[in-house]
Amino acid sequence: GLPAVPGYVLAVEGHERKTPEFPFQLMTPPSKDFLNTSFGSVERMVRSEGKPRLKINPADAKPRGIAQDALVRVYNGRGDCLLYAEVTEDVPPGVLVAESIWWGKHHPGGKGINRLTSQRLTDLGECSTLHENLANVAVAD
After folding, report:
1. Burial class (CB in 10 A: 0-12, 13-18, 19+), 74
2. Computed from CA positions of residues 105, 109, 102, 116, in that sequence, does the dihedral angle turn out positive or negative?
3. Mind listing the pLDDT tens digit for each residue in 115-131?
4. Relative to the CA of 107, which of 4, 12, 39, 79 has its CA 20 to 30 Å away?
5. 3-state DSSP call for residue 45?
6. pTM for the whole structure
7. Three-state secondary-structure class, residue 11
């Protein structure tokens, strides 16, 4: 069922499909101390990571009133979670990065970043689509 010659296919929730409601591409790469949810119970590694953070570019943070270490709500049509803002030039405008994966019990509100990821599988190999997530962010109430 796959074409003989590869071609470019738009991602279901890629940057080309951003909307005013969900203007950010949300990335959830592994952190330096956790491997997915592995090691999330190791106190030394939890201490090393500090707290669940969301990296956001200053150009995106400023118009939303998001300051360094502010508690923010990241959300999309699947769910939401609370993280602490890390305002940094290390991520490009239009991209949010939540290094993962913190156990839900470590998040304010008890919900982790996987509340926002899709259960959809790829057409090639039926793998997870965890990096295809559009989202929005606001200062938490």
Report:
1. buried
2. positive
3. 888 877 777 778 777 67
4. 12
5. helix
6. 0.83
7. coil
DSSP line for 89-105: TTS-TTEEE--B---GG
The amino acid sitting at 14 is: G
Identify whether 56 is preceded by a cis peptide bond (ω within 30 of 0): no
User: In which residue ranges of the chain is pLDDT below 50?
Assistant: none
CB burial of residue 26 (10 Å; 0-12, 13-18, 19+): buried
Q: What is the CATH number of the domain that holds 76?
A: 2.40.40.20
Identify whether the C-beta of residue 53 lies closer than 8 Å to the C-beta of residue 44: no
Domain that holds residue 99: 21-139
